[in-house]
Amino acid sequence: MMRTLGSSRVFGISRALVAVAAASLIGGSIVTGAATATPDAVFGACPDSSVTEGHGVQCAVISVPMNYAEPDSARIELTVSRIAASAERRGVIVANPGGPGADALDYWARRIDSLPTELNEHYDRVAVQPRGLRWATPLRCAVQVSGDAQSVAKSADGEQVSLGGGNRDDIKKACDAALPGYLDTITTESTARDLDQVRAALGVDRISYLGTSYGTYLGAVYASLFPNRVDRMVLDSNVNPDWVWTEEFAQQQVAGKQRLDDLFTWIAEHSGEYRLGDTALQVYQNWVRLVVDQGGGWYANLTPPPASVADLPGALPEPLAEIARDGFNDSVEQAGKVQNLVRLMLTGGASAQVPLVGATAVATYTRTFWPTFAGAMADANIDPKNVRQLLAIEGATSTDPTGRFVFSAITCNENAVRGRLELIGSAFATIASGGNAMDARADLVRSGSACGSWKPVTQPVPINGKDLRTRPLLLQSRHDALTTYAGGPAMARAIGGSLITVEGGDHGAFGRGNTVVDEAVMTYLRTGQVAIDHADQAPLR
Asked: What is the pTM of this model?
């Protein structure tokens, strides 16, 4: 959802498990100071390699309290990027791309050519690097602690650390060695309060806001804490505020399966170009074979898409074909389970995030990846050693190690949902029976095992938009695989916003070449009005 919720990947079981916590925040008793009357943000050069050159991006470093419950105690520094309006300025719009744990500084520069010209001309575009990430007082933890191999990463110092699934006392001790108390402040509420410190440093009374994926939840928390500081707010691909975080990531598995069927269907419709199968079932079968050949183990265990007449063996008269077709759907499902069970027995239950699995996860984000993904899968089908393009696609959403630390810290610090450890048994029963791997992963997420003994340190901030001057605008794709559709209506109800339902399943609807959506957003930013409630998906270019 997000780590873009971008980035708890649909197929990355260890990442999905790390995303098991549930949102709560530091609590409403904290009092922050009044807005700064005079701006104190001094903009100049950005950190090396942090932003795309040639787009006029400048950066400033802002000092904020580390712990808002002790505002006069230790402070940390955040880097802020800005691209100034090229014409008459209408306001300041702050963006967050999601995660939690996604770098933000380059958000606007990377998208400048795909965003409406009106936005680039009339708004100062600002992005705040979230606390804990590189260029924002990175979370550093000094020693290696317990955790599986896939959740271990390198800290900014090059030392090894794991924040997921281990003993929280050991984790906290490792992190406190660098900056005592910092780990406990890596929360959505702290990040929202950081945004308001930046607003004050910019010398503006109100900001507009654009949040995608996890950024929708961050924006909703900001709006609930500081409603009088919000001008316009656009929330794109929404977290369900009732699911943060366990159910949000469990639901990704269900939505991900639907999007895979859509992807396989699209590839089948272009079988003349990619030669991976004339039906979704045939493409699925090729996908399974390639994943198994690459060593993917039970990652390949997916329920097949529905069979079609073209999947029937041989030509049959229509009445017999209809009977055979109806019966064949069931037999395909049963046969698929048997094949999955055999595969499980042959691999000993092992699984690996092989190139095809990783690239497939990225392809579920947006249809923009589909032609490239299909071509890469076709290359691997011809030459199994040719995975170069698959690896490139998988790397499109890679993050700095500090992003993984922040992802774990926020989701475990905010876990408001008790884990159901009994579901671990259910997950393994699903695997052992040859059932759908995504169902097993959903049960593993709901078990709460990702955070281990890490208990939450915060209480949730109730999402409420009743004091906002202008109702937020929400965008939600109907088949979004990372933030499932239910999140859009749920967030709209909680924050009192106007929802536009977008067909298809792109994660992030604004700035994708969808003229109807882009015009609706710009109309809202100008007037505060929303004239539509539905839009078709973006054209596939």
From this structure: 0.85
